[in-house]
Amino acid sequence: NWGSWGSWQHCSQTCSVEGSARQPQQQRSRQCNNPTPSSNPLGRPCPGPSQESQSCTGLPYCPRDGNWGAWKQSQPCTVTCGVGQILQKRLCDNPPPKHGGKNCLGEDVRNQPCTIK
């Protein structure tokens, strides 16, 4: 027969990823020792699993750092003929930071050369 189930182990992670189907798990085990099967004559092992797992509940969401989206032209070229500048902008929205994740590093605005013939 099986002995008693042991305590649940710590969760495999300290936070869960928002929107993920895979949640952190915790396990517990038990021993086939109540009594231990005989070795002579050979006894039958205990039926059923020696371990079980369950999803951890109540964990906070993991921080998600932000990442830059694509540069987009926000104003036309500064000249109608020759070489000028185009102002480009980008957003920290691919994805945006969430649950205490870090903001995007770097500039959100830049000037790029443009040539109009």
From TrEMBL:
<protein>
    <submittedName>
        <fullName>Uncharacterized protein</fullName>
    </submittedName>
</protein>
<keyword id="KW-0964">Secreted</keyword>
<dbReference type="InterPro" id="IPR000884">
    <property type="entry name" value="TSP1_rpt"/>
</dbReference>
<feature type="region of interest" description="Disordered">
    <location>
        <begin position="21"/>
        <end position="54"/>
    </location>
</feature>
<dbReference type="InterPro" id="IPR036383">
    <property type="entry name" value="TSP1_rpt_sf"/>
</dbReference>
<keyword id="KW-0732">Signal</keyword>
<dbReference type="InterPro" id="IPR052065">
    <property type="entry name" value="Compl_asym_regulator"/>
</dbReference>
<feature type="compositionally biased region" description="Low complexity">
    <location>
        <begin position="22"/>
        <end position="31"/>
    </location>
</feature>
<keyword id="KW-0677">Repeat</keyword>
<feature type="compositionally biased region" description="Polar residues">
    <location>
        <begin position="32"/>
        <end position="41"/>
    </location>
</feature>
<keyword id="KW-1015">Disulfide bond</keyword>
<dbReference type="Pfam" id="PF00090">
    <property type="entry name" value="TSP_1"/>
</dbReference>
